[in-house]
Structures are given as C-alpha cells and as structure tokens.
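Batch manifest, entry 17 of 40.
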Amino acid sequence: MNMYDWIDTWQQAWRAPSAVLGAFARGLDDRNTLPPWLALPKALGFDPPALTIRRATSASFSVLRRLTEPREKPAFGIVEVDVDGTAHAVREEVVEERPFCRLLRFDLIGRSDAPTILLVAPMAGHYATLLRETVRDLLPSYSVVVTDWSNARDVPIHDGGFDLDDYIDLLIGHIQKLGPTTHIVAVCQAGVPAVAATAILESSTTSDVVLPASLTVLGSPIDTSRSPTEVNRLASEHDSDWFTDTLITTVPARFPGANRAVYPGYLQLTAFVAMNPQRHEKSARDAIAHFADGDFDAAEKVDSFYGEFLSTMDLTAEFYLQTVERVFKRNALAKGDFRFRGTPVSLTTITRTPILAIEAERDDITGLGQTSAILELASELPPKCKRHYLLKDAGHYGLFSGSKFRREIVPELCAFHEGEA
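Output type: structure tokens
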C-alpha cells in the first residue's frame, strides 16, 4: 500500500468520527443552542466565563475537524455581487468542458457589454475556487471566464495525460474561442504558460490568429533566479529523480483516475504549510480566540479561508515534473531555452500585446522581481505597452484576494485595460 492508499483509507475511516465531532462542536456553539436569555449578560457588558470556555471548546473541536476531515471540490457559489450599493444577480455557465478543465463564465444577469477577462487559475494544488474573491471583485467591471481545473484523480486514464504543453495548447484554444477583446489575467504558476501562449500566438504567421487584448501576470515565476524563495530552493537542492521517487504516486483504486501517476494534493498542502508553519498556527489560534470572544465574523473569516486552503487537488505527474524541470530548475523561459512541443519560444516575439506585471512586496512564494522580469524579457514590446505595479505590505495571497486587491489591484487593472497612464 503506497502513502496515497494509506491516507485515503485513513480519511475514509475518519468520516464518521469527523461528522460526530462536527455535530458536537456545533452543539457547543452558543449561537445555535443556547437559550436567548443567556446572551443577555454579554449584551450588558458581561460575558460569563462558562460561555467563553464553551465557545473556545467548540472552536477547538471545529478546527480539529476541519484539519482532518476528507475534502471535496468546493463550489464557487457566487450568487450576487454588490455594484454601487445595489445587489446584482450572477449567472455561472459552462463555456467549454474538457477532461482536465472546465471553462466557466461568470457575469451579471442582464449585462451584455462588459469587457472579458480570462482568469487563468494556477494549477498548483488548489482548486480554481481559491480565486472566488478574485472573481467576485472583478465582476462589477468585467465578465469573468475562469479555467476551472479538474482533480487529476477524477480523470480516467483513457482520457490521456496532461502536461505543460497541453496546458499552453489549452490556453491558446481558449484565447481563439473568446476573441481579441479578451484580457488575460494569470495568477502565480499560470503566468508561465500564459506568457508562453502569448509569445506563440505573436509569432504565428496565420493571418486570422487571435491575440489577447492584454496580458497581466500576478506573482508569477517568470525568472526564478531573482529573489529565490523556498519553492526555488527546493527545486535547486534536489535532482529530477528525487522528485519522481519521492513525490509521485498513483491514484487509489476507488477514484475514477485509478492508477494515474500524480503529484498528490496532500503533499502540496504539506509544502505550503511547511513554508510558514508559525503563520498557520497563529491563524488557528486566532480563530479559536475570536470564537471564544464572541467575534464570530472574524472567526468565520479565518475559517472560510482555511476551508478553501485545505481543499487540494492532485496534479498529473507529467505536468508537475515538467514544471519543476522547465520553470524552476532550468529557468527556461528567462534563459531563452523554453520549448513548446520541441519548438523554441522567444519572448522577443511579443510586440503587440500590452503587459502588466503585478508583484507583492512580501511575497514568500514568488520572490520580488521574478514577475517583473517579463517586462525586460519582452524586449521588443514598446515601453508604453509595459507596466509594473508593486503591492506594498502584502504577501502572495494579497495579490488576488482581500481588501488590498479590491482597493488597489482592481482599479489598476481597469486603468491598464482602458489604456490610462
């Protein structure tokens, strides 16, 4: 039995105890079960210690349950958004469906003239729903189309493989389908295939080829030699065989993708947590403390983030290993050594597609300068078509979610797409 089989067996065995633990935690939650009159002391400025202890116990059990329960793919669940103080209903529809990716469009019902963003979600262990806030915050200004990646464990082997070249091919097809008014916004890992796809399209001699209206990369490892992070160091400290022997396994028999070779999501989650364990431990403690203090909104904000953060998906072995080798070990895009199905890809072919590079000052996943390198590498693109934005006092996730994204990044995108200086 390999590690994946063992973990899957353990998770299946834990389902029933997890459900009981969740019910017990909810039973302790005074919002649900305590009689209304017990809330009176707190309303008068006194919170009985017994209630504080009860809430803290409930929160502790809830955190334990969330950390250990099996997880399925979350839904986007965007029903409506606020536009200038008015709630607008949101329509979600499938534009295209392939084994490894669904193309989802989100738009305000009744609106037909909004510009389109192709939001390329990273295929890095989390579902595209990690960008739920990104979609919600862009919707007042855009029609948003998202690459909704499939969990490799759920794709039968007879549907074939999916590697980095397939990813680039998929993006090229999406751009052709959506049309020349489509703005690409690529997050983190997705920036490399999005840049490569743009360069390939720009080098095409076909007269009817469709180019994106613009390309934005957020926290993307375009040149991994700059400001190396733990992600870069992991790639440089181990040879390719180590990644294959240590991190690749096969999908257990009970899943549709049985026997497919994958980089499992639980390993990626472990890596994410190991990069900054103190921060995640503090978040768990904060959630418990907020709950114990009766600050349910603050507690649920943390809980909601980790509900998404802890939901991971498997990547095909071929995609993961190619990404490690070509992006992180060889730094092929920056060194001019990147190839697409054997053909060299040069970023000097990008001469017409405006590029916006956005970085976070405290990004511990994609080091400062790795993303803005695209502006130098696309050396034939006129300076007026290049733009760089640094998000101050923010980490990696602040690039695509939270208040700073709403206040700073969204207006920056809108100004860039409208051609403002």
